[in-house]
Structure formats: C-alpha cells, structure tokens
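Format notes (please read before filing issues)

Several people have asked whether sequences and structure tokens are stored in separate files. They are not. Every record keeps both together, in the order shown below: the sequence lines, then the token lines. Line labels are part of the format and must not be stripped during preprocessing.
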Amino acid sequence: MLEIVQSGGWLMVPILLCSIIAAAICGERLWSLQRRRVLPDNLLARTWSSLKNGDIDAQRLRELRTGSALGSVFAAGIASHRRGHEIAKQAMEEATSQVSHELERYLTALGIIASISPLLGLLGTVWGMIEVFRELMAEGAGNASLLAGGISKALITTAAGLSVAIPALMFHRFFLRRVDELVVGIEQESGKLADIMHDGGDDPRF
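Then the structure lines:
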C-alpha cells in the first residue's frame, strides 16, 4: 500500500487528506443525522403535556432547545406563543431554517471533496505522463517497459482520486436526501404544535 502511495507521487498526499476528511465527515454526519437524535419519538405529545400542566419554565425551555433539532424549534415557538399564533409560527419557521443549516453542516465540504478528488487524480496523471515523456526523451523510445511502467504509475493518482470521489459523492447525495426528509418531519411536527397551541387541542397525536 505504501509503495502504491509513493508511486503516485506528491499529489497522493492531498488525495489521501481528502479521503481522511471525507471519512471523518461521513462518520460525524451518520451519527448526527440519526432520526432519533433529530426527531425524538413522542416529543410533540410530551411537550404539549408539559404545556398543559404548566411545567414549561426557563430551565425546561433550555433543555428542550439543546436536546434535539426538533426541540429547539419547539422552544422557539413556545417562547413566542403568547404573542400570537402567527408570531409563534414565524418563530418556528425561522428556527427550522437555522436547524436546516445546522443539519447541512460539512456537506458542502464533502461535495467539494467529491468534485476535486478526481481532478487531483487527473492532475497527478498528467504530471506523471510529463515525467514519462521526459524520461523517454532522455532514454529513447525503444524501452517499452519504461513506457509501460511510467504510464502505470501515472494512472495511480487517477484511480486514487476516483476511489475517494465516488463514495464521497454517494454519501453527499445520501445526506442531502436525509436532511430533506428530516426538515420535512420538523416542519410537520412544528406545524402541529403551532396549531395545537392556537386551538388549545387535547390530543397532539394526529
């Protein structure tokens, strides 16, 4: 493995860095975008129950805000609901936009890695081919093994770049889809809470 990396030349270094960063981002996003962490089960019912019982105070709001993305949206609506239904709804919409931005954290970087990794690989191949032809000019064109070996080494960076870019692109698309689904869920749940607070309903489970 080390021999392959060394054969690829100095451009293997940024490609390897891209692979490490992409792996770290994927691991972090897989953990952070779990549905139970963003949309805890029965949070709407528990929040409405606390509201009806008068158990929502500053401490409870802080816990709600820091507990999950959905909780932070609920906290924004609850803090504003005494100023009217529309104000509470607007506050939750603004909080949802902020949460959406947080859920997309690092995804731009992952998309950039998916885009530049094959370009770095191609640059490495072009650079390697330049060196191959330089050697051919010095040694002569009769050495076929030199030509084949040089081309093989030059193509290593392209293969490495594609090996990083393909999974990075797949995960980037996957995470964008996951974020869209989570944001839709947050919007639905926050809309229910806004309507319940406005109507004073007894059952938030619908």
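For reference, the curators noted about this record: The chain has a mean pLDDT of 85. Residues 144-199 form the longest helix (56 residues).
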